[in-house]
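Thread amino acids onto this structure.
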């Protein structure tokens, strides 16, 4: 399983944060797989800067190459990961949680 860190525009980011958007459409140039993690970082295209906000999701389903979708695009069903989308809920700071936090990899939190 891989962690994919991607830019997400503010309008879409807000809908993800509120739980209204439970899918993501992307060019599949990263070989996305069910079980991979998406770390979506809010990016403001007007000034080309990251806002510092991010959300993490697990890919639960991928639709590609059917129903008229261009072959290079995929629609991914996603679900929030273990409440890590709440700023106070990232378990990377808790020593005993290192093995279960989806954002902890290779001895450090990938959000830092």
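Threaded sequence (112 positions):
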């Amino acid at each position: 399983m891989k962690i994919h860190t991607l830019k997400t525009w503010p309008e879409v980011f807000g809908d993800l944060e509120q739980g209204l958007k439970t899918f993501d459409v992307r060019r599949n140039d990263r070989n996305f797989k069910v079980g991979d993690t998406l770390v979506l970082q809010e990016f403001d295209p007007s000034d080309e800067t990251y806002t510092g906000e991010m959300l993490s999701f697990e890919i639960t389903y991928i639709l590609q190459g059917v129903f008229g979708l261009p072959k290079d695009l995929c629609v991914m069903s996603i679900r929030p990961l273990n409440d890590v989308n709440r700023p106070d809920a990232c378990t990377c700071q808790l020593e005993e949680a290192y093995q279960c936090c989806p954002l902890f990899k290779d001895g450090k939190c990938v959000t830092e």
